[in-house]
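Exercise 7.
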Amino acid sequence: MVDLEFDQESEGLAVLTIDRPHARNAISLDTMGQLEKALGAAAGARTLVVRGAGDRAFVSGGDLKELSALRTEEDAAAMAKRMRSICDQLANFPAPVVAALNGHALGGGAEVAVAADIRIAADDIKIAFNQVQLEIMPAWGGAERLAAIVGKGRALLLAGTGTALEAVEAERIGLVDRVIPRASFDEGWRSIARSLARRPAGEIKRVIRGVSPDEAIASFARLWVADAHWRAAERVMNRTAGSRPAAGGAS
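Solution. The predicted structure, written as tokens, is:
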């Protein structure tokens, strides 16, 4: 099951939850269809969070019990193409996408994680591109995205051996962007996501992904003339004025 909620405390924050406890949040063909619908429904969100339900698994990969019915190269290719398209939609989502790694991200789950812009992990999780344990390889775009994040050599080492990384080690090499203690994890990722949703992070994402200097300047100019900028500027100027010492001196 895939749930999509819109955070009522922060306008523009959408949270997509993969909730399949019986399969450790593994992805089946039906899950793919639900993900496609949820991504369509999230259009317009200022920040999108992808998470797994519970605290054991973010996504544990593809659901082998269901996907084992695929026995031809054609069927395998069609499944991989469909899920890669979903990961591409995550990567190309106009607003920031945060993967909240509430549990282990394994195999295809790690591929979903690297399709996000930002990965926030609980301190007791592991992440592994361990498809090689099944004598296969990442097929949802994860190998290429992993290489873009950690470099080609390190990506080959990780995916080629299936090494599982603790959250702190994943953060050290840049695979995870923030590690939060388990006790405060839910509060932590929501705080970060709400902050992103309240600010023009979508424009910053667009520039980071690559636009011309003129387009970057045009984005800045649009924000500059917007009412939100002037309201914020007024607050800053009022605080600054209030902190100045009073005019005049001692007599």
